[in-house]
Amino acid sequence: xxxxxxxxxxxxxxxxxxxxxxxxxxxxxxxxxxxxxxxxxxxxxxxxxxxxxxxxxxxxxxxxxxxxxxxxxxxxxxxxxxxxxxxxxxxxxxxxxxxxxxxxxxxxxxxxxxxxxxxxxxxxxxxxxxxxxxxxxxxxxxxxxxxxxxxxxxxxxxxxxxxxxxxxxxxxxxxxxxxxxxxxxxxxxxxxxxxxxxxxxxxxxxxxxxxxxxxxxxxxxxxxxxxxxxxxxxxxxxxxxxxxxxxxxxxxxxxxxxxxxxxxxxxxxxxxxxxxxxxxxxxxxxxxxxxxxxxxxxxxxxxxxxxxxxxxxxxxxxxxxxxxxxxxxxxxxxxxxxxxxxxxxxxxxxxxxxxxxxxxxxxxxxxxxxxxxxxxxxxxxxxxxxxxxxxxxxxxxxxxxxxxxxxxxxxxxxxxxxxxxxxxxxxxxxxxx
Length: 433
Prior knowledge:
Blueprint: H1 3-17, H2 22-37, H3 41-52, H4 59-73, H5 75-87, H6 93-109, H7 112-129, H8 134-145, H9 147-150, H10 155-164, H11 168-193, H12 208-237, H13 243-261, H14 267-300, H15 303-314, H16 318-335, H17 338-355, H18 360-374, H19 382-391, H20 395-419, H21 422-432
Helix pairs in contact: 1-2, 2-14, 3-14, 4-7, 4-13, 4-14, 5-6, 5-12, 6-7, 6-8, 6-11, 6-12, 7-8, 7-19, 8-19, 8-20, 10-11, 10-17, 10-18, 11-18, 11-20, 11-21, 12-13, 14-17, 15-17, 16-17, 16-18, 17-18, 18-20
């Protein structure tokens, strides 16, 4: 690797590590490459703007807005009530409720941070009241929130498809099965860890007839909320709507449901949601513009080829190279948020993995699982800290349960996704070919 590229990457990592805002960290690395390489900014700026002119990117503010409306509108509460009817009667069952609800919520909001914030504010008081160890509950929340990255429609998969010139629908389908696997494993590990904890309150056992009646009653009340993923995912997979149109439908559907049906959203709250969505979108777009310029410079400096040369100098074995790519992505996920990781990693690593025969759609799932795992892997673990702030738990209390969840839920999913392509490509081949 050339000294110029090495210094640019070191500068990027250093600025991120000391807490410089991510767009400025990317711009600083790009500025160094422009200065040292003698590139013309007059060429790079129009390139960045041209790459941003994509209708696919409209999904980002729309899904952010839909997630904000769901958070403030009480939609998450109804989802929790339905799942609790089925899973809340066993030891550790309330944790399973949180995992499954995060998966459902993530299927609509497309955002991990929105999922952690909304479901965490609903579930943490219930978990504490039921006697769950606060560190365990907070760790489970952080790991479950990441499901928003994998369960479609995922904002991360939309960005990967845009960066890699791939089908958005195919990327959605590739991450779906890994997302379901993580959901199941997180639930199983949670129950196993709490199996002997006698301080946890368990819901009163009900016979099948009572459970069925209660489930039907709560499902009826939650039907408008439950219809959201059905409408959105059904519209996308049925070919009725594009992801962008589905995101717009999600907002149009969520606002009246939250305001008039559940009455949790007021005009004042709606305005606050719109302002927050606009602010978040502005930050993401500034970051994307910076990453577009930086990734273009990395390609002009031939970084993918340099990385490939460095990896093959260690080993030419495909399995070893994939393991090294996974480690690289995991570290990237630890250093930065998932959006930054996908924007920066896709143009660098996609040409590399295609050279060793990895399908670009398969790599979408590999990146999603890696960045999701990185988001909850200490010492940086951005979602872990967010969950700690919401729950009031100390990071030291969260480390042990997080380690178990990483080893027995995330790591098996990552290995399956990486080395068994059918896990991510099975649905794609079934529904699109």
